[in-house]
Amino acid sequence: MIIEKSDFSNWRMTDSNFAPDVGNVSNAIKHIEIELEVDLPKEYQLFLSLINDKPIVPNDGREYCLARYDHGVRRVHVAVLSSSRKVIERTKLSRESIFDERHLLAEGLIVIGSNYDGDADACIVYDTRPDSPTYLHVFNWRYYVDNLVVGEGLGLLAHSLKAFLNTPTVANEL
Fold this sequence. Notes:
Layout: E1 11-13, H1 22-36, H2 42-50, E2 56-58, E3 64-69, E4 72-81, H3 84-94, E5 109-116, E6 121-127, E7 138-141, E8 154-158, H4 161-165
Antiparallel strand pairs: 1-2, 3-4, 4-5, 5-6, 6-7, 7-8
Helix pairs in contact: 1-3
């Protein structure tokens, strides 16, 4: 999917001093790929380039979307889509655990942001595994209670990052 500037109409930069820095973004992409041992899809690389590897948040009032599970839908309040530093940090933390009952994030799934679903804090997870049937899909994952089965513990937010960027809306439109 080709992400364009128009796909960010529901989003705003958290850094008001935005100045494009191609070298910085290229280094961020390489750093994620090395640290997380993934090949970032072109869609995500373009996303990082367009946001200059800065966090973005939904526009005020347009912070809600639906996560689809086998048992129904859950309303989600989107908090942030993260910079590369946070993507690496949150993904690594989600791959390890000191808790017995916690499900660990599988390699190739990366945490690209955070949200709240009315019950718990959750992660926005992106599938970078090219051989996966859910490649490029974006999911809601309540990391401390939900398993990593699509439809059970992973609620589908969108079939691509581009589609997800166009999803957030006002609560009463869900």
